[in-house]
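User: Can you help me understand a structure? I only have the sequence.
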Amino acid sequence: MKARATVAYDGAPFHGFAANAGVPTVAGLLVDVLSHVLRSEVTLTCAGRTDRGVHAVGQVVGFEVSERSDAELETLRDIVNRRIGPSVVMTAIERADDDFDARFSATGRTYRYRILDRLEPDPLLVTRVWHVPQVLDDEAVAAMEAASADLVGLHDFTSFCLQQAPRPDGAMPTMMRRVTDVSWRRLPDGPSGADLLEFEVSASAFCQRMVRTIVGTLVAVGRGEMPVDVIPTVLAAEDRRTAADSAPAQGLVFWSVAYGPPR
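Assistant: Let's start by predicting it. Here is the structure, written out as tokens:
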């Protein structure tokens, strides 16, 4: 039978999600522990590969297990958590349909990105936020919100993504993605008392560095370094050099995955 699990992790100690020989990764740890507990080699699929330093609340993984009741799956989760915590935690586990694929069955993903916008950094948040050493006031946030609206819809996001290698057949992978929702919000009295700025974006899927480059570009708009109407120009260029530098990894959290009819 197939199992579907939701996984949360602190990305700081890991070199990303995907297994990579010689360095600690989230998938590497999960596969090692699951294979040991289940006494068979486990192949893991995931809803989306996160880069080094990126965190997750709602990553979803799938793997094969022998037939188990719901109670036995919960026992498996508890055993695995005792071995992989505290940096990685399996927060839920359930049976999945035979044709379930954590990546290809997903119809949407949501990321959140957090910014500490004040002069002094916060040592308690150094692995959790992007420290921008100036206040992004109401006017700046309004400009970022206006620019964000131009991301919604089906677009070619080549300008916001790392260049991809050709597929085995020589064709370049498509960078067409449908963004369904974007928003900015203040998080008053966040961790350690800091007032944080949070960006949320949902899409059918994301290409590598897409969210971080979007955030870097939107913050450039808020700082007055790029115009409010820059997004359509950057999208149309299909050239990574037209967008701003990517925001750092530590502010990014893979928040949730949607399964079912696309929005």
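Now, to help you interpret it: Residues 36 and 42 are 9 Å apart (CA to CA). The first helix runs from residue 26 to 38. Let me know which part you'd like to focus on.
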